[in-house]
Amino acid sequence: LCCPLDIVVAKKITQPSNPELAIGAVTADGAVLWAEDAIQGRQAGKSDTSSLSIALQQAREKAIAQLKQLTPGRPSCMVAGKIAILVDDGIATGMTMAVAAQAVRSQHPAQIWLCAPVAPAELMRRLEAWGDRVILLATPSPFYSVSRFYQQFPQVETEAALVCLQRQNDTAV
Question: In this structure, how many other beta carbons lie within 10 angstroms of the beta carbon of residue 167?
């Protein structure tokens, strides 16, 4: 696209008793989004507020640490008045994409486009609420996981991501 490539680091907030269960998401800059059941549990007094605070803090610390690692490759660009294209390798629950969109929206872009190769069809309405345009290659139903969409789904190391980020921003117009 010949444009700057920046990142928004968003991490799942997981339930302390079940690290696989996402109860929210947070960005490195502090945007937070809680899952509906986490909010209801807190309001009903079923959730321990201190454990939720700890889970939030742990997720934010992970996001901040990853952002620090990637900062040398980040461009200095402003999204105000421009189209911001948020890309993910796949959307499962939508929590991290939603909080990333929330964080970017606070910078007043002209539009936010949400792009991914795969997401559950049931999320389409929510995705359209979070972004001005949604581009998905597939919306399988039933949806099992993002990794099932890929023939290979290796973990991308931070160092490799930094090299790609730096390479793109060295050549961006």
Answer: 12
Helix (H, G, I), strand (E, B) or coil at 166: helix
With beta carbons less than 8 A apart as the criterion, state whether 101 and 126 touch.
no
Both tokens of residue 55? 């889970």
Q: Is the pTM of this model over 0.85?
A: yes
User: Tens digit of pLDDT per residue, the chain (173 long)?
Assistant: 888 899 999 999 998 777 777 899 999 999 999 987 655 555 555 556 788 889 999 999 999 999 999 999 999 888 999 999 999 999 999 999 999 999 999 999 999 999 999 999 999 999 999 999 999 999 999 999 999 999 999 999 999 999 999 998 888 65
Q: Fill in the DSSP letter of residue 157.
A: P
